[in-house]
Amino acid sequence: MKGKATKITVNANGQLTVPDHPIIPYIEGDGIGPDIWSATRTVLDAAVEKAYRGGKAIAWKEVLAGEKAYNTTGEWLPQDTVDSTKDYHVAIKGPLTTPVGGGIRSVNVQLRQVLDLYACVRPVRHIEGIPSPVTKPEDVDMVVFRENTEDV
Q1: Digit-coded pLDDT (tens) for 95-107
Q2: How many other CB atoms are there within 10 angstroms of residue 22's CB atom?
Q3: How many whole angstroms from its chain centre is CA 11?
């Protein structure tokens, strides 16, 4: 990939401006997270390569949260991770463990709260060629909204 890796920016209209070689922070995750992340990264890199014929690529930047963060820094969610996620405007995250014991609640909920990710918005639509139990799947047009910052 030619060119320097750079951050995604937000323009005056609030729209993301994505460079050809964006830096995207990722949290590998706990438990099966490393296995999932390895496969995810392979798929995303291949999709970008195929879609842009080598003209674009992602520069991955690891940031820590969960057990890996705790074992490395003594914190479940280091401020550096929060700051990087805000600074780079996007991030991808694997599954994180919920610590047992007092003093910390779910790292997932903590991330949602500090980043103001209050809504989980899930559009639902039919993908042509995929079997469906619905009589007219092409007519499905809905969005599910879920409050995202409570510890449920």
Answers
A1: 998 877 766 778 9
A2: 22
A3: 21
pLDDT at 101: 72
Chain-centroid distance, C-alpha 12: 24
For the annotated binding site for NADP(+), the residues are 97
130 sits in which H/E element: none
Q: Output the pTM of the full model.
A: 0.81
Domain boundaries, the chain: 9-118
Helix residue ranges per DSSP H, 6-136? 33-52, 67-73, 79-88, 107-114
For residues 27, 33, 37 and 40, what is the CA-based torsion angle, rounded to 10 degrees? -120
Q: Which residues are known binding-site members? A: 97, 106, 108, 112, 122, 146
- Enumerate the known binding-site residues for D-threo-isocitrate: 106, 108, 112, 122, 146
